[in-house]
Amino acid sequence: MDITVSANNPVPLYQQIVHQVRAKVLTGELKAGDPLPSIRQLASQLIASVITTKRAYSELEAEGLIVTRAGLGTFVADLDPETIVELKKEVVMEHLEEGVRVARQLEFVDEEINRLFRQALDGSEKRV
Amino acid sequence: MSENVLMLDGVCKSYRGFELRNVSFVLPRGYIMGLVGPNGAGKTTTIRLIMDLARPDSGRIAVLGQQMAANQIELKRRIGYVPENHEFYSDMTVNWTAQFVGRQYPTWNEARFRELLQRYDVDPRKKIGALSKGTKAKLAMALALAHHPELLILDEPTSGLDPVVRRELLSDLLEFVADGDRSVLFSTHITSDLERVADYITFIVNGRVAASDEREVMLERARASNPTASIEDLLWTYAKGGH
Amino acid sequence: MLGLVWKDFYINRSQLVFPAIVLCAIALLAAVGRSSPTTVDYAVPLLFTYSGLMVPFFALNSAMLEEKNRTLAFLRSLPMRADAIVASKFVAPLLVGVLWVGASALAAIIMQAGMGEHTVSIMSGMLLVCATLPIAAIELVVFFRFGASAARTALIVVVGTVYLVPLLAQGLVAKVKPIVVAMMDPEPVHAVLFAGGSLLLYFAGMLIAQAIFRRREM
B104 and C78 in contact by Cβ < 8 A? Predict the structure, then answer.
């Protein structure tokens, strides 16, 4: 599994792992049933502590993205397409909500925020 | 198998000019604990007490579930110890030293030792006195790992090593605990080593334990007030007498 | 413990090389000058008086090398009994003394056929080694308590006392002289008692050193 983490990143290590694994599952890079390295194997691979990877896997399991089968290992969960769409929506919402939070912090009102959002939408279309 | 490989409870030790007071912490099996503190805080003293190179004035120490004083030989066979200044016989070669040390451990694995020497780039025919500080450190590490100990105790293992070797060493530590049965205690004042690798951290400042907990838990608590808080920041806080 | 004794031998091997050369040189010279009885008469006692140096100096060199390398702490961190570390420091010099007496006796035999006149020197050589045992014991106890420099000082002080006291106390000379003469040609019973007594003192010293080292913090 191709993941990197950086201690210099303000995002906690375990969350960096969660984000990257989640992204791979949602984009289909990791398919249902694909095996994942064990907690300790991943720790060794990333040069990160065991508790960190343990926590990352706990969260991924809580989100329903991975499953651990006793004695067999950890695998990508079997997600139906609706769940995947829901999860993708959640990821996007996370980022949008962060944008809203920052905008409000900078004292923009809702209409201005909306306008800025449209601008961003159009802007990225033009760039593409 | 004991659940805690290390248990210190109310350990006190006083020397002229320095005092270790009420040191208590626990290291569960299968994890890495960093012992962090400024120079002179008491890290080496704590480790020497654990290794029975000095005796506490009061308090209890349990290593691998047993008392060091009563089972010294058996326990030391299961421990890999790398002190801060590893002193070997300077006129003897690496080979001779390895032979001498290897004979003391029934679980010594010669093949593993040779493999480690090669990986660490240590010439076995050289005399100890001719080795650089970094190479001696790597040799000491190889000697400690070669007998497959259950517990690694390292005192400032990365000081004086260049960043590449440091990363290699940290990677080796994680490989070491990969099977879940082995544990590591290492003391350091280089906090960046701990940022990723330590499961647990015990902060020792001025002879006292300022805090001892899971690294993630401590960082999360600290990041509630300072989103980019690091271990170094925490150490700074404790060293200044804060909480 | 035997592994430690072997280690001490190997690390201090330079201490053994020079006496070995001296031994061979004397034996060779005497064998060559076999026809001249004075050469042989001179060589054999010379060999045996050298015996007085072997044990204390080997012990001292071993202690000094250990301290220079700062390896006592290293040994203590290995899975071995502290008592074994001390024991090896006592056993190695003793073995050196025994080996030296044995080698010297062999050299004496090689040098000349008629052993009769020289059994005296072999015996007194052995007794001389025994006499140095308590001195080495004191030196080693001091080493384990105070370190190698102190041990060296202790050796100088003890040897100096042994030489100076009879000079300063004239009355003692009269008492000491018959003892020295007896050592040259001892009754077997006396020899055995003397050897036994010295060994006892030596090992008593070892027990004291072990007690000290056990309590010492590294």
Answer: yes
List CB contacts of B46: < 8 A, sequence separation 6 or more.
B8, B11, B20, B23, B35, B187, B204
**Is B53–C76 a contact, with Cβ atoms under 8 angstroms apart?**
yes
Rounded mean pLDDT, A72-98: 86
> Where does C112-187 have alpha helices with state H?
119-146, 148-168, 170-184
At C31-47, the pLDDT tens digits run 676 656 666 667 766 77
Is C77 in Cβ contact with B51 (below 8 Å)? yes
Domain ranges for chain C: 2-215
CATH number attached to the domain at A13-76: 1.10.10.10
Say if B170 falls within a structural domain: no
Q: Domain residues for B68?
A: 1-78+151-159+183-243
Closest C-alpha to C12, from C74, C61, C72: C61
Query: ipTM for the complex?
Result: 0.89
- CA nearest B33 in A: which residue? A49
Rounded to two decimals, the pTM is: 0.85
From chain B, pick out residues whose CB is under 8 angstroms from the CB of C218. Answer: 48, 53-54
B212 vs A19: CA distance, rounded Å: 29
Contacts with B103 from chain C: Cβ below 8 Å: 3
For residue B172, give the chain A residue with the closest CA.
Answer: A44
Q: Is B1 part of a structural domain of the chain?
A: yes
> What pLDDT does A64 receive?
86
Tokens 């012990």: give the residue: C59
How many residues does the structure list for chain C?
Answer: 218
The radius of gyration computed from the CA coordinates of chain C, to the nearest angstrom, equals 19
Asked if A10 and B174 come within 8 Å (Cβ–Cβ), the reply is no
Q: Write the residue in A7, A40, A52 that is nearest to B216 by C-beta.
A: A52
In this structure, of C81-85, C100-104, C139-143, the range with the lowest mean pLDDT score is C100-104
Chains with 3+ CB–CB pairs under 8 A to A are: B
What are the helix (H) ranges across chain B?
A: 43-50, 72-77, 94-102, 110-120, 133-145, 163-176, 192-197, 215-223, 231-239
Structure tokens at B107: 């679980």
Q: How many CA atoms lie within 13 A of B71 on its CB side?
A: 12
Read off the pLDDT of residues B191-215 as tens digits, 9 standing for 90 and up: 888 888 999 999 999 999 999 999 9
Q: What is the pLDDT of residues B138-157, one digit of tens each?
A: 999 999 999 999 999 999 98
